Amino acid sequence: MYHVGIDLGGTNIVAGVIDDNYKIIAKAELKTSLPRPESEICDSMVAAALKALTKAEVTMEEIDSIGIGIPGAVNKDTGIIEYSANFDFHNWKVVKMMVERLGKPVYIENDANCAAYGEYLAGAAKGAKNAIVVTLGTGVGGGIIIDGEIYSGSNFAGAELGHMVIVKDGRKCGCGRDGCFEAYASATGLIALTKDAVAKENPLNSYILKSVNGDIRKINGATAFNAMKAGDKTGASVVNEYISYLACGIVNTINIFQPDVLCIGGGVSREGDNLLVPLMSIIEKERYTKHNDRQTKVCIASLGNDAGLLGAAFLNK
């Protein structure tokens, strides 16, 4: 049998057909095109799934189940999206609507939880009993696996690791609090740190500003790392500051949960050892268990954007 995983994002809808060995047979992608009514989003998810099935040369009769990863407070027991800020939907009966369209069992879960579950099943956290995935993208996503089960809290809004405060009265976060982990350790936070540093430089001598053709709006999550690799002192300073904030949140998470494995994913994780090596030097000094024989393994997530598809596809397990 095969499984369909759907990753519903604010920009794209991605569907994948996956076999029992966690191999993705085919994928299809459509634009989410927000804002749109709930029914139209469901129609597009169905279209993406059918397109993937056609590419995989698999029929709907061969599909065991369909899983969907969705940002927001996802009530997997009722099949309702209680709230999703990305879509501005409240109490969206997505499972009911998708079952009506596809006639197959449909399961839902928060998208970050799906990514964590995917890494647990077939990625960098495979073989672990307890695992956490921290995703560094537009925000800081979190997914927690305890004893092989997704942890989502009593109200299905657990694992919001990005919204622990690491700087009291610090930078404003989108959630309304000040100084959240997300405000500093996301790609958005890294961009803000880079822009702040460039604003203090002489524009005529700024390597970073020259690298973006003088347009500060073109600074992205890789800009400071690229400048550092080119020998630029400002780039190196920004990266060091960014990693110090990231380490603070990671150490807090390790101290609370003590997982077997903590995987770091998202766009910033593509920096690999340029991120991980200095990060580990701080973690090793600051984690509570630094004198223990057994330590949390910290690594880069291995599945990339496919983690959410894989995790969603096997929500029926």
Written account of the structure:
The protein has 317 residues and is of the alpha/beta class. Helix content is 37%, strand content 23%. It has helices spanning 38-56, 94-102, 111-122, 181-185, 187-199, 207-211, 223-229, 233-257, 273-286, 306-313; strands at residues 2-8, 12-19, 24-31, 63-70, 73-75, 80-84, 89-92, 106-110, 131-136, 140-146, 149-151, 261-265, 297-300. The strands form three sheets. Strands 3-2-1-4-8 form a five-stranded mixed sheet, with helices on both faces. A five-stranded mixed sheet has the order 11-10-9-12-13. A three-stranded antiparallel sheet has the order 5-6-7, with helices on one face. Helix 1 packs across helix 2. It is globular, with a radius of gyration of 20 Å.
Number of strands: 13
Main beta sheet, described? 5 strands, mixed
* Gyration radius from CA atoms, angstroms: 20 Å
Low-confidence stretches: none
Distance between the termini: 13 Å
Q: Give the topology string: H per helix, E per strand.
A: EEEHEEEEHEHEEEHHHHHEHEH
Please count the helical segments.
10
Helix content: 25-40%
Integer average pLDDT: 94
What general form does the structure show?
A: globular
Secondary-structure class: alpha/beta
* Binned strand content: 15-25%
Widest beta sheet: strand line-up? 3-2-1-4-8
Short key terms for the protein model shown above:
single chain, 317 residues, 5-stranded mixed beta sheet, 10 helices, 13 strands
Blueprint of the fold:
Blueprint: E1 2-8, E2 12-19, E3 24-31, H1 38-56, E4 63-70, E5 73-75, E6 80-84, E7 89-92, H2 94-102, E8 106-110, H3 111-122, E9 131-136, E10 140-146, E11 149-151, H4 181-185, H5 187-199, H6 207-211, H7 223-229, H8 233-257, E12 261-265, H9 273-286, E13 297-300, H10 306-313
Parallel strand pairs: 1-4, 4-8, 9-12, 12-13
Antiparallel strand pairs: 1-2, 2-3, 5-6, 6-7, 9-10, 10-11
Helix pairs in contact: 1-2, 3-10, 5-8, 7-8, 8-9
